Amino acid sequence: MDTPLDRLAEQFRRLPGIGIKTARKLAYYMVQQPPEKIEEFIAAIRDAKQKMCFCSICFNLSSQDPCPICSDDRRDHGVICVVETPQDVSAIERSGDYHGLYHVLQGALSPLDGIGVEDLRIKELLQRLQNTEVQEIILATDPDVEGEATALYLARLLKATGIRVTRIARGLPMGGDIEYADEATLAGAVANRQEM
């Protein structure tokens, strides 16, 4: 039987990282809320959808164009950190240690999923580099097969520009145990060691 509750749970299940049990839990929770709370929730979704856009320079999500990062003269305009998603920008910004600009690819190369070079914001990155003072590109794609393939492709492509291309280091997370780390993580940690 297809009830309104089932349809609501199905909508939640379409969200990334939400399984059937969590979707049902969220659906039950929502129908038990007072109408004004539901209206606030709906208004927040509508407001975000209507007022958020992609920055025309870096393709990060923002409520203004260009975004506050691209518009900030205090940031280092000589460095661009290339990431896969707007969520990656948020994560790096939370660290508080990076003060350059960003370029969001809107994904990573994944031939099995039908995502090729033309599906990413690579052409826009190259155009951006033509008339700028950029001295370094930091490739901060995910350390998975797709992220590594994307970083290798970009490194080869950007070599011709003469701009310094670097890759973020890989290693052990803070608070992690060496004995539980996989071989690739340990290899990255040893290869990217720093002098103390």
TrEMBL record:
HAMAP family: RecR (MF_00017). This is Recombination protein RecR. GO terms for biological process: DNA recombination; DNA repair. The keyword Membrane does not apply. It comes from Megasphaera paucivorans. One of its GO terms (molecular function) is zinc ion binding. Residues 78-173 form the Toprim domain. May play a role in DNA repair. It seems to be involved in an RecBC-independent recombinational process of DNA repair. It may act with RecF and RecO. The keyword Transferase does not apply. Keywords: DNA damage, DNA recombination, DNA repair, Metal-binding, Zinc, Zinc-finger. Belongs to the RecR family. InterPro entries: DNA_Rcmb_RecR, Rcmb_RecR, Rcmb_RecR_Znf, TOPRIM_dom, TOPRIM_RecR. A zinc finger (C4-type) spans 55-70. The gene is recR.
